[in-house]
Amino acid sequence: MVFTVYTIEMAYARMRELQELANRSRAHQSVSASKRAAKKHAKKR
After folding, report:
1. Distance between CA atoms of 2 and 17, rounded to whole angstroms?
2. pLDDT tens figures, 1-45
3. How far apart are CA 27 and CA 19, in angstroms?
4. pLDDT score for 42
5. How far apart are alpha carbons 1 and 6 in whole angstroms?
6. How far apart (Å, rounded) are the C-alpha atoms in residues 21 and 23?
7. Half-sphere exposure of 17 (CA within 13 A, CB side)
8. What is residue 35's predicted lDDT score, i.e. its pLDDT?
9. pLDDT at 41 (0 to 100)
């Protein structure tokens, strides 16, 4: 059996990775949402 030592540093690094991904996807969503909103407003005129 192989036991890997999972340190606080590793957990913290993983947490930072996930946070970065979440921020990236949130930024991407807001961009696409604003594009969609712009299209809606353009059609109304």
Report:
1. 25
2. 777 788 999 999 999 999 999 998 888 777 677 677 777 666 655
3. 12
4. 65
5. 15
6. 5
7. 6
8. 74
9. 65
Tokens of 22: 């979440």
Residue 14 amino acid letter: R
**Cα–Cα distance, 45 to 43 (Å, whole number):** 6
Both structure tokens of 20:
């970065």
Quickly count helices (H) and strands (E) in the chain.
1, 0
pLDDT of residue 12: 95
Distance CA 37, CA 39 (A): 5
SS3 of 1-45: the string is: CCCCCCCHHHHHHHHHHHHHHHHHHHHHHHHHHHHHHHHHHHHHC
pLDDT of residue 5: 82
